[in-house]
Amino acid sequence: MAVLWVLLGGMLGAPLRFGATRLTAKFWKHKFPLGTFWINVVGSFCLGALYGAQAGETAWLLVGTGVLGAFTTFSTFGVEAAGLFEQKTPLLALLYLLGSSFCGLLGAALGQAWYTGG
């Protein structure tokens, strides 16, 4: 049953990421990969809130692993960062790497604090 929950969540998270990335690309024409950046920060916030809610196993499988696992993307983040280095924009690449890491951690902490009231 666990695989079914992950599958159902992933079926929602993947198209959400696809749509959010496409929508961002319509309005953002800069080299900085804003779509992946904000998707990962929002996903971190939501996962932090799920953690703060002390969600049960089914919620973790469906929402945490399924929806948010498919919505957020570490692999795309890595490829985009490498691409920025390859395009000879090392400062932008470092901003993306450090900014994504910091804002992702901050998002997770704020999500947890928001849910727990702390």
From TrEMBL:
<keyword id="KW-0472">Membrane</keyword>
<feature type="binding site">
    <location>
        <position position="72"/>
    </location>
    <ligand>
        <name>Na(+)</name>
    </ligand>
</feature>
<feature type="transmembrane region" description="Helical">
    <location>
        <begin position="35"/>
        <end position="53"/>
    </location>
</feature>
<dbReference type="GO" id="GO:0005886">
    <property type="term" value="C:plasma membrane"/>
</dbReference>
<feature type="transmembrane region" description="Helical">
    <location>
        <begin position="91"/>
        <end position="115"/>
    </location>
</feature>
<keyword id="KW-0812">Transmembrane</keyword>
<dbReference type="GO" id="GO:0062054">
    <property type="term" value="F:fluoride channel activity"/>
</dbReference>
<feature type="binding site">
    <location>
        <position position="69"/>
    </location>
    <ligand>
        <name>Na(+)</name>
    </ligand>
</feature>
<protein>
    <recommendedName>
        <fullName>Fluoride-specific ion channel FluC</fullName>
    </recommendedName>
</protein>
<keyword id="KW-0915">Sodium</keyword>
<dbReference type="Pfam" id="PF02537">
    <property type="entry name" value="CRCB"/>
</dbReference>
<dbReference type="InterPro" id="IPR003691">
    <property type="entry name" value="FluC"/>
</dbReference>
<keyword id="KW-0407">Ion channel</keyword>
<feature type="transmembrane region" description="Helical">
    <location>
        <begin position="60"/>
        <end position="79"/>
    </location>
</feature>
<keyword id="KW-1003">Cell membrane</keyword>
<keyword id="KW-0479">Metal-binding</keyword>
<keyword id="KW-1133">Transmembrane helix</keyword>
<comment type="similarity">
    <text>Belongs to the fluoride channel Fluc/FEX (TC 1.A.43) family.</text>
</comment>
<keyword id="KW-0406">Ion transport</keyword>
<dbReference type="GO" id="GO:0140114">
    <property type="term" value="P:cellular detoxification of fluoride"/>
</dbReference>
<keyword id="KW-0813">Transport</keyword>
<dbReference type="GO" id="GO:0046872">
    <property type="term" value="F:metal ion binding"/>
</dbReference>
<comment type="function">
    <text>Fluoride-specific ion channel. Important for reducing fluoride concentration in the cell, thus reducing its toxicity.</text>
</comment>
